[in-house]
């Protein structure tokens, strides 16, 4: 059994300098090659039985999301009910993995979901910018956990990361992880949003992924969905390589969640192909791969109906939320 | 789990005639002395093909000579360019049909014939169409002249692409051609003959004759041929060089290779793995410039090989027409036997042979993607071109050693360098004896870029302005 203490993995006492040395020792990422690999996997042709399997899996992996200033208890309740019965015309349709909302909506979602196995995920730590003091971020997290959130989606401090303050980012993630602790001693699942669109380079994204895994994140997540560039196939491929290599090194399985901009069933299937061929079949489970999406579900439902009936329906044959 | 259901490209788009004659002087002759051409993936017979006799060769050369003197050399460059543009457009229009035909007859996966071969074929015609009226800028001074009749003999690994590499520059420069496709892959060349008819190309400018080695030898040896262009094995290339020695035939030979793909310890490893896979498993490794010798720095050997093996587990071998197939069939029984025996020899000489556990179809000719580690410089698999999906892995410690090992081969066609350090790439590239050197990529082709080798990999260049010069002489 490998020693999983961060000090053992980094090979030194954790300081900003040792973290930097460790992160910079990771192999570089060649942009052209990475994007070419993603583009080539995107040409896989997924038809008939494999498409049916993929559409259902995409739903099961979905974090059905609403993160608007205009969200109301009524609105999130409606979304929760949609998760319980995504397609009223076909009760065999699976449910999404979770409903993802702001912290103050957690209790409403929880109530609407009742005893269902669908999780409630809350964004926390001054989502989406992450610009707040640590006590505020901790309270934000604890509040959501107390309200019953099963999963916490935190944002990293991109400013600190870009300024080279890796230790600061690392400590914040660790502290939020502790804030995920429930009274019974168990932990809410922690997803660490890297906001890859703001990290700019693939090398940075690989380093941020490793930093989040070292600090104890259960999932690494691409984006908030609130910036110009959100999840892309190459970024997700890169993060899947990171969790795969982390598993080789430590035996620990970390999940990946692309979020933002995945709108069509066709897109979702490309991501599943990348999961299968890059990380491997082990990751083809909602425990280790999620889609953060709001409009994706309806497109998947329409494709699902098409496969079953042979005809395309239309937006009026799936519910608006 | 997530299994990919079959996703076959429909073959209804292509229909072969039951038998083909030769394409001479704009018309198909009556088939005679036919042999069967098959799909190497199923061994199904696709059509009957004519074996051209010495007499047929003579007729074809005469037709080409006649067309050269009466029509083609009389046309302005702009007029010749129009025909080439027309051919390029028809190839685009019939791209799917040509891709399916290529995959059927060659065994290569449809994703390669569809996304690589056929787009490159039309790109080649477009590129040289643009040159046809600009020959004054080809580097030979004002008013350069065509050579006359070109005899062109091409291999089976990229049948239509090799045809394009040969015919497009020849025609742009004002030559006429007699081309012989490889005996195992004649079908796309015969479809190309139909395209010449469709484009209204004057009779005799392009002649396609089919057959075996004797037909090729007769063509190359024909006294009225001015230019010989051959792509294929070094062994045959040597014979050709002897055969035409003492004549005034101009010649270009593009022969074998045993390229080094050099991975330094600071390389972007995941992308290097992709480059290694693309370098040796693209087109079943039937690529003269394949990266068949992996030179890996000792410090990253184990990690890289582990990543490479895992990646190889995901390679999908099978039906060439399935859109998800990564590796298709070996082109012929003969080639399969050669690969099998070379790998056996490599194992005997101490190499450790590894291949992923991939199911092998019952019919047809197949060879699983394979790597041989622990290969010594003296081993057969480190020195001889295998021309199959087999990678020999050799280690090195310093850049100097990498260069020495990379250059230690009778060939010199291509090489690859993987490093995140630009200065190292430039220094090493400067010291490698290879016609093409790729940095942090592999197997990239462009009609504007000259391609060709050093030493036993042949002489002359194809592609770009250099490729044009192989079909021109200085004007008066």
Question: Overview of this structure, please?
Answer:
The complex is a heterodimer of chains A (321) and B (476). The longest helix of chain A has 18 residues. Chain A has 321 residues and is α/β, with parallel strands linked by helices. Chain A has one domain: Aldolase class I (TIM Barrel), CATH 3.20.20.70. In chain A, strand 3, helix 7 and strand 4 form a beta-alpha-beta unit. In chain A, helix 4 packs antiparallel against helix 14 and helix 11 packs parallel to helix 12. Chain A is built from 14 helices and 8 strands. Chain A has an 8-stranded parallel beta sheet. Chain B contains 15 helices and 20 strands. In chain B, strands 14-15-16-13-12-17-18 form a 7-stranded mixed beta sheet, with helices on both faces. Chain B has a 6-stranded mixed beta sheet with strand order 9-8-7-10-11-19, sandwiched between helices. Chain B has a 3-stranded mixed beta sheet with strand order 1-5-4, with no helix packed on it. Chain B is 39% helix and 16% strand. Chain B has 476 residues and is α/β, with parallel strands linked by helices. In chain B, strand 17, helix 14 and strand 18 form a beta-alpha-beta unit. In chain B, helix 4 runs parallel beside helix 5 and helix 9 packs across helix 10. The chains are: A alpha/beta (321), B alpha/beta (476). Chains A and B meet through helix 3, helix 4 and helix 13 of A and helix 9 of B.
């Amino acid at each position: 059994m490998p020693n999983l203490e961060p000090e053992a993995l980094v090979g030194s006492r954790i300081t900003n300098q040792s973290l930097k040395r460790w992160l910079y020792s990771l192999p570089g990422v060649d942009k052209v090659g990475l994007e070419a690999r993603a583009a080539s996997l995107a040409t896989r042709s997924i038809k008939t039985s494999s498409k049916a399997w993929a559409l259902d899996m995409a739903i099961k992996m979905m974090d059905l999301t609403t993160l608007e200033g205009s969200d109301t208890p009524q609105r999130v309740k409606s979304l929760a009910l949609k998760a319980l019965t995504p397609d009223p015309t076909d009760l065999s349709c699976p449910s999404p993995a979770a409903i993802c909302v702001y912290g103050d909506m957690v209790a409403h979602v929880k109530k609407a979901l009742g005893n269902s196995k669908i999780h409630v995920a809350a964004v926390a730590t001054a989502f989406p910018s992450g610009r707040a003091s640590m006590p505020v971020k901790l309270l934000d997290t604890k509040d959501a956990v107390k309200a019953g959130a099963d999963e916490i989606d935190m944002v990293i401090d991109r400013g600190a990361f870009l300024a080279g303050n890796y230790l600061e980012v690392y400590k914040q993630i660790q502290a939020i992880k502790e804030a995920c602790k429930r009274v019974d001693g168990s932990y809410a699942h922690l997803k660490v949003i890297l906001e890859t669109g703001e990290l700019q380079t693939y090398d940075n994204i690989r380093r941020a992924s490793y930093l989040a895994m070292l600090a104890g994140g259960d999932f690494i997540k691409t984006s908030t969905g609130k910036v110009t560039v959100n999840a892309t196939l190459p970024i997700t491929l890169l993060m899947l390589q990171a969790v795969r290599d982390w598993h080789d090194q430590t035996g620990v399985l970390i999940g990946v969640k692309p979020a933002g901009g995945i709108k069509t069933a066709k897109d979702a299937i490309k991501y599943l192909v990348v999961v299968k061929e890059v990380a491997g079949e082990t990751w083809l489970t909602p425990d280790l791969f999620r889609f953060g999406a709001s409009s994706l579900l309806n497109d998947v439902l329409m494709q699902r109906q098409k496969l079953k009936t042979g005809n395309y329906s239309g937006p009026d044959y799936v519910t608006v939320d | 789990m997530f299994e990919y259901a079959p996703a076959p490209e429909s073959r209804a788009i292509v229909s072969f005639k039951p038998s083909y004659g030769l394409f001479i002087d704009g018309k198909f002759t009556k088939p005679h002395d036919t042999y069967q051409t098959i799909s190497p993936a199923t061994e199904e017979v696709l059509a009957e093909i004519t074996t051209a006799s010495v007499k047929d060769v003579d007729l074809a050369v005469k037709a080409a000579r006649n067309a050269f003197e009466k029509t083609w050399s009389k046309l302005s460059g702009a007029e010749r360019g129009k025909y080439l543009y027309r051919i390029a457009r028809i190839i685009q229009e019939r791209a799917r049909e040509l891709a399916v035909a290529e995959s059927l007859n060659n065994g290569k996966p449809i994703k390669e014939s569809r996304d690589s071969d056929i787009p490159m074929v039309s790109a080649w015609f477009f590129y040289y169409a643009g040159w046809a009226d600009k020959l004054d800028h080809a580097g030979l001074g004002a008013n350069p002249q065509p050579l006359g009749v070109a005899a062109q003999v091409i291999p089976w690994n990229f049948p239509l692409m090799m045809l394009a590499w040969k015919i497009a520059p020849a025609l742009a420069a004002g030559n006429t051609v007699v081309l012989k496709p490889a005996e195992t892959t004649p079908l796309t060349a015969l479809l190309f003959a139909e395209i010449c008819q469709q484009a209204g190309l004057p009779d005799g400018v392009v002649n396609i004759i089919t057959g075996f080695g004797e037909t090729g030898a007769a063509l190359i040896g024909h006294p009225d041929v001015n230019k010989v262009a051959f792509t294929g094995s070094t062994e045959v290339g040597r014979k050709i060089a002897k055969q035409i020695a003492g004549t005034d035939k101009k010649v270009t030979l593009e022969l074998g290779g045993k390229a080094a793909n050099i991975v330094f310890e600071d390389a972007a490893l995941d992308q290097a793995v992709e480059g290694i896979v693309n370098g040796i498993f693209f087109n079943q490794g039937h690529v003269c410039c394949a990266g068949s010798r992996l030179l890996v720095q000792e410090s990253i050997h184990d990690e890289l090989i582990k990543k490479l093996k895992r990646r190889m587990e995901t390679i999908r071998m099978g039906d060439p027409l399935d859109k998800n197939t990564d590796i298709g069939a070996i082109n012929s029984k003969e080639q399969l036997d050669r690969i099998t025996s070379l790998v056996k020899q490599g194992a005997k000489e101490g190499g450790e042979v590894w291949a992923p556990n991939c199911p092998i179809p019952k019919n047809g000719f197949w060879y699983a993607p394979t790597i041989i580690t622990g290969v010594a410089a003296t081993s057969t698999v480190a020195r001889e071109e295998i021309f199959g999906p087999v990678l020999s892995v050799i280690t090195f410690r310093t850049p100097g050693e990498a260069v020495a090992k990379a250059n230690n081969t009778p060939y010199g066609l291509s090489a690859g360098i993987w490093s995140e350090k630009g200065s190292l790439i430039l220094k090493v590239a400067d010291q490698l004896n290879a016609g093409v050197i790729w940095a942090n990529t592999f197997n990239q082709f462009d009609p504007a870029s000259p391609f060709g080798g050093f030493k036993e990999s042949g002489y002359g260049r194809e592609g770009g302005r250099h490729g044009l010069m192989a079909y021109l002489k200085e004007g008066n």
